[in-house]
Amino acid sequence: MIYSPQIPKWGEKYLEEKEEKLVDYHNWLSTTGIKTGLISQKTDQHIWDEFIVHSLYFYKIIEDLGVKKRSIFDLGTGAGIPGIPISIVSSANVLLVDNKKSRIFELERLIKILKIEDVVVEEKNAIELINTKENVVFTLRCYLSTSSLIKETKKTVKKTKKLNNNIYLVSSNKKNKIKTDKKFHVKHEKFLINKNDYRFIDVITSM
Fold this sequence. Notes:
By secondary structure, the protein is an alpha/beta fold. 43% of the residues lie in helices and 20% in strands. The protein starts with 11 loop residues before the first helix and ends with a strand.
């Protein structure tokens, strides 16, 4: 089945500037990614829309917030989603975090294949990073839900008596609308990944 490397209007500049490398990553996901179990069997169009386009909206939010110079920690990165597409279209410092050595090995090979700079992959404790880092951006596509993340960060605030000024971008869904509270502001962003399908990312910032 022939797929279309499309992107809605919000992301046209990313595709214009980096289409070749984004397509190379798509091809890696559809072959090596599936073969090594980093992702399950998917159609080429699904891989493009859900893993490439969806990932790029994470970076659009980072640009819109004016925090492109902050370090980005992609927690539970798996096959490098969304960290690899972010690193392809930006010069941000990106750390891909996972707890499985086989995934780390494949991602290290991928980074060399794509010749991406300013991105590294490490085996680290994601919760520890959430509890200790300050003034960074965390991306979480599947690692924690918004409600679980807020519970974890509130534990840190209770211990340290201070907010860490981090920004958390968490994949969400239409029904998962978390209310803003006294410590954290939650913005539920809705965006197109193709002509017809919408997805959601929660943008969580300290109050």
